[in-house]
Amino acid sequence: MSLSIREAFGLELVRLGKKNKKIVAVSCDLKDACKLSFFFDKFPKRSFEVGIAEANAVGIAAGLALSGFRPYLASFASFITGKNVEIRTSISYNNCGVVIVGTHGGLIGPDGATQSSFQDIAVMRSLPYFEIIQPSSPKETRQAVAYSARSKKPLYLRIARNEVMEFLPKNYKFKMGFPALIKKGKKNLIISSGPILSNCYYASKKINKDIAIMNLSSIKPLNEKYILKILKKYKNIITVEDHSTIGGLGSVIAEIIAKNNLNKNLKIHGIQDDFIDSDTPSSLEKHYKLDINSLFKIFKKFF
Amino acid sequence: MINKSPSKICKNIRKKILFSIYNARSGHVGPSLSSVELIYSIIKLGINYKKKNRNKFILSKGHAAPALYATLDEFKLLKKNELKTLRKVKSRLQGHPDKKKLNLVDTGTGALGQGLSISIGYSLSSNLLKLNTKIFCLLGDGEIQEGQIWESAMYIGAHNIKNIIVFIDGNKFQNERSIAETLPEKNLLKKWQSFGFITKKINGHSINSIEKIINSFMKNKNNKPLLVYCDTIKGKGVSFMENNNKFHSVKDLSEENYKKAISELS
Fold it and tell me: CA-to-CA distance for A150 and A2, rounded, in angstroms?
């Protein structure tokens, strides 16, 4: 069954909202696109439309969190994570439990560079106390959203617009801080998350080699001991992301490798230091070499 | 504090502001001194820190932190000698209010323009929980140049939120120069009115005027959102600091100036 990750988010939030009355929603005129509208329809009294005023929305969500609610503030990742000083002071400095849901990360399509986000992980990673999750499939999205409702921390949830066929194993369990190996291998390791992970998965299947895949969906905080144990086993490591190569998943892994003085062959593949163009998501994936075929070629050459 | 007249208490608060800033060797002295009567009256009449589900005080102009700390000390809500720790490592009294360290504050502030939005969040939560919480939000007159203030004003007006009272500490100066030299206010009260507020203009150093407004607000007398522009003097209470923007933020308050200031307040 194929379901977009944002739809999985919207459905799960409604399911959680029935039991957990502390969950509230804050929108900046993009609730339909973010699928926060499902929650708005079901729980109108716990839903607040702020209008096209993201800074105010950040402060309102902070005030709600400071009084014990668990607000979900959803908008396009590029718009909402652009409110850095507001998130920094009103949410991070207070260490208060707002969940920021950034949708439309990566290669979203014809709307182009201003609407699609490829710096959000870098920006949000640097804010103290924030947890960061980027789920990779509909099933994992449901589990990650359930986690976000249990956590009391400020949390950034990067939710893709893309439709993704469910490809994670039946018994898959999301565990914060412990990114799972979804495919076993010996010398070679691919690390990715979000909708691009499934491209990596199908590309690697076409190669007749032992390739492991790590689903780096929980991005911050990480259990470093656990990650180190995995990284040590592999010689060649490639990170793949629909995000800038500055400050994203590749940086997370490079920091761990550098900090622990590991001798690894590491390649960071993602969006270079530039804005992306407009086109259909599939054309963009080809152009930025994140589609299955391009990844197949990159992996084949690298491993 | 009992039996002391409010004006005497405010003098004490001013002395404590000067003491803590002198001791820290830096701090925003001018904008702290201008807001003393406002912060004192808000806390005295509006905030019972011992109560659960109490009213909230949002010091949006977070650089007036020394005035907040001095007032909390005057109300015996800080530890003995704690004012001496202002702006020091591990102190609860950081340069700008830090809720993680000092739980009495209802939000951390410092980057300007954000407190009114947080006030709305508290107000919505009060409605959801049916608490009738009152929220007191203190803005600087320079601070309202921030666009977010007007986003929040638009929201408050549109939803006719009546449990927030907004005070502007109108001391006529901002970080570098006067407001008039930087970005002159045109029709300031009319702007707020057009957003749906009732506006009042008072002398921000008259405890009587402030208390009258707070008392009526506490009794839910306003049928619209309420904005109070308070005419104040930057550096109020110390002759050589009044309307002298050199004392907006001091790097090192000399012993001579400190002693002179204290003697004027004694």
Answer: 27
Kindly give the residue spans of alpha helices, DSSP state H, lying in B129-251. Answer: 147-158, 179-182, 188-194, 207-218
Residues of B with Cβ-Cβ distance to A56 under 8 angstroms = 117, 120, 148, 151-152, 155
CA distance B42 to B67: 12
Q: What is the pLDDT of residues A51-110, one digit of tens each?
A: 999 999 999 999 999 999 999 999 999 999 999 999 999 999 999 999 999 999 889 889
pLDDT tens-digit series, residues B78-102: 999 999 999 999 999 999 999 999 9
B100 vs A94: CB contact, 8 Å cut-off?
A: yes
> Domain tally for chain A?
2
B155–A64: do the CB atoms touch at under 8 Å? no
Domain annotation covers residue A201: yes
Query: Rounded distance, CA B126 to CA A289, Å?
Result: 50
| ipTM of the prediction | 0.97
CB of A118 closer than 8 Å to CB of A271: yes
Residue A73 to residues A24, A39, A54, A271, B30, Cα–Cα distance (Å): 9, 12, 9, 26, 37
Structure tokens belonging to residue B16: 């404590």
**Are residues A79 and A135 located together in one domain of the fold?**
yes
Q: Give the structural domain span for A43.
A: 2-165
Where do the domains of chain B lie? Answer: 6-265
**A-contacting residues in B 90-129 (Cβ below 8 Å):** 98-100, 106-111, 113-126, 128-129
Which CATH number is B6-265's, of 3.40.1180.10, 3.30.450.20, 1.25.40.10, 3.40.50.970? 3.40.50.970
Please report whether residue A128 resides in a domain. Answer: yes
Q: What count of other Cβ atoms lies within 10 Å of the Cβ of residue A255?
A: 12
Burial B54-86 (b: 16+ CB within 10 A, else e): ebbbbbbbbbbbbbbbbbbbbbebbeeebbebb
Min Cα distance B121 → chain A (Å) is 4
